[in-house]
Amino acid sequence: MSRWQIARLIAGKDLRIERRSKVLTNQVLPFAGVTMVMFAFALDASNVLERVAPGLIWLATLFSLLVLVQRSFAIESDDGALDALRVAGIDPVAIYWGKSLALALQLAVLEVVLLIAAVVLYGAKVPLGGIVLLVITLLTATCGLACVGTLYGGLTAGFTGRETLLPLLVLPVVAPVLIGATRAVESALGTDGVALSEGWPWIGLLAVFAVAFGAGGALAFGPLIEEAT
Amino acid sequence: MTTPTIPADNPTSNDSASIRVRGTGTTATRVLGIATLVTIGWLVAFGLGFSPADRDQEDAVRILYVHVPTAWLAYLAFVVTAGSSAMYLFGKKHSLGFDRVAGASAEIGVVFMALTLVTGMLWGKLTWGVYWQWDARLTTTALLFVSYIGYLAVRGLGGSHEQRAKRSAVIGLLAVIEIPLVHFSVRMWRSLHQEASVLDSDGDIDMDGLMLFSLFVGVVAFTLLYVWLLLHRTRVIAMEDLLDDQGLDRALDERRAEATT
Amino acid sequence: MEAEPEVPNPPDAAPHLVVALDDAVAVIGGFPVLAGASLSVVAGEIVLLRGPNGAGKTSLLRLCAGLLPIARGTGSIFGLDLATERELIRPRVGMLGHRNGLYSDLTVAENVAFWGSTVGATNDEVAAATARLGVDGRLQHVAVAQLSAGQRRRTALACLVARRAELWLLDEPHAGLDAAGRDELDAVLTQAVDSGATMLVASHELERAGSLAHRTVDVIAGQVHDGGNES
Q1: What string of pLDDT tens digits covers the 229 residues of chain A?
Q2: Which site among A179, A208, A219 would you substitute to test the B interface, given the most B Cβ atoms closer than 10 Å to its Cβ?
Q3: Consecutive H or E run containing C47
Q4: Mutate which of B162, B248, B249 to test chain C, going by most C C-beta atoms within 10 A?
Q5: Of A136, A170, C5, C45, which sees the most CB atoms within 10 A?
Q6: Is-contact B4 B22, C-beta < 8 A?
Q7: What is the ipTM of this complex?
Q8: Element (H, E) at C48
């Protein structure tokens, strides 16, 4: 089977498991929603929330990313499936692409829900002209986040005491995505009077990030999961 | 029991049998150590004494004689870690010596990064009244600092020396992708705010001859200090690895003895 | 290497060494789980690994699967070096460890199909594997999480069958199976060997596994001394 076919097989497997277990819909989405509510409690002033809505959306996304990555690898190490994947001699790059793809799709759903939550809870407004920028931001940022998450998730998978390492490793690395995606969404929504045109340079940054970690991650994933005993 | 000595500064030495260590000092490190002390002495003399106080910042500028060199060294340490990681992964022999250099450099680098951040905060408080500024350099250094703490945590995950080396080398090289991305994103971010980059402390400040010279002495002194620390720490790591190997030998003997009882 | 050992029922004319370990040492957390394992296994053999708990049987199997790195000594599987060519060894090996390697939220059929697809098995082969282990019919559409331990074991074995491995590494495969299941397992193993597979079985079921195996090897305190075929 070609690498791409195996990746699709693995992505399909992950998504099928999600469909059965409904962890995303029943646990992670509510968690993200609660986070958005918590932000409102913490940031008390009246019109602050609408101004910082883009940032809060991406913050909630990052926290949920950590949870989703843990889940993505928990299903593997639960019954020793990660070992089985390694013994099966499946190309690690295919595993990486497959799991990243499944993670990206789940993240995308999460981000759309968070956007809706921001509109509802914070009074954010979505102008029609900004939709294209919004969608492209979502796509590029999600790819970058999924790649980084799968990479470091593989490193920290399956051993007690290694899961706490995941946030420490992931958050500094995804800082550029947080910065870029927030600025791009601010332009798309016109928050604080930011013009639409200012968002596009940030898309460039997000795209470079996604490509760099998509490629770098594919190379690094094999050696990293190799070294679990 | 034979007393060990290390072959001088040989990063490609993989064979634990050839590492016999009494202490980590050799002629090279002693010479280096003396040179370091001398230049640090110069730095103190010039930095605190001979060079003049700045017009605007007065004596606060003296902090820069430490802050700028430590910043330079933090990045140098990062480059050395990345380079050694690459040499380990892509070298034919996968020599563990490179892994040890990478680890030692990261540890020293973390210390220098912390120093950079602290001196930067002190300088900022004295000159501009604020401890922290979200300028590109400080922010990137802060993120680099956290990344290196993560790198050191990965080094501590356990397993054989080869496993540790491979894992850390991969993480170290990923930082090479990560740090420029962080740097550019923070730069783009701060340029939006168009504020005077108050802590952009090299070149923006009008330094006259003696001040520039003190800065230069500072860079040299700290670089020598870094090399000295790197040599010692790498050798200590080699000794720790040697101890692990000897521990394994003992454990093997014990286990083999179990079978005959 | 040793001269070719005698094999009771050689399936091919020129037996070759599938497993060749020479004083292999493997370490986990600083502890030598294998402290010198020497083992030679020829194609088509079923070798029973016998030894007390903690002797290193599981570690030996994991070493042969390429999951545990070899720290000292030499070893090769199918002639491929364990130190440098583990990725080439793995696709040809199938391991059934203490855990089943199944996805608990998926059904039996989906699990077997997934593991079979990784080697390109057809739907017929997957169905045959499921039927062989008695987990077809109503059971195949049940999520693994809802199965009993024995049923999960059978499912894991079905996945192994679907993968058509050349070297089977089985860690206490009879554990958890009822009498019928054990008989079926023996039949499956015998059939696989007749088709050319080689097997290493670690088991405490000395009578049953012993009658199945061509020979027995003792694992004590992480060491295995095996010079070839001795019954």
Answers
A1: 788 999 999 999 999 999 999 999 999 999 999 999 999 999 877 778 888 999 999 999 999 999 999 999 988 877 777 788 887 878 889 999 999 999 999 999 999 999 999 999 998 888 888 899 999 999 999 999 999 999 999 988 866 667 789 999 999 999 999 999 999 999 999 888 788 888 899 999 999 999 999 999 999 998 888 766 5
A2: A179
A3: strand C46-50
A4: B248
A5: C45
A6: yes
A7: 0.90
A8: strand C46-50
Do the strands C198-202 and C17-28 form a parallel or antiparallel pair, or are they unpaired?
A: unpaired
Q: For residue C65, how far is the Cα from the chain centroid?
A: 8
Interface residues on C facing A, Cβ-Cβ cutoff 8 A:
28, 65-69, 87-95, 97-106, 110, 114-115, 117-120, 143, 163
Nearest-10 crossing angle of helices A200-226, A165-189: 160
Residue A17 has phi, psi (to 5 degrees) of -60, -40
User: Could you report the per-residue pLDDT of C146-204, keeping only the tens digit for each?
Assistant: 998 888 888 998 998 888 889 999 999 888 888 888 888 888 888 888 888 899 999 88
Question: What type of residue is B116?
Answer: T
Task: Supply the pTM of this predicted model.
Answer: 0.87
* C215/C231 Cα distance (integer angstroms): 5
Query: Length of chain A in residues, anyone?
Result: 229
* Residue A217: both structure tokens together: 């991650």
CA distance B168 to A107: 28
The length of chain B, given as a count of residues: 261
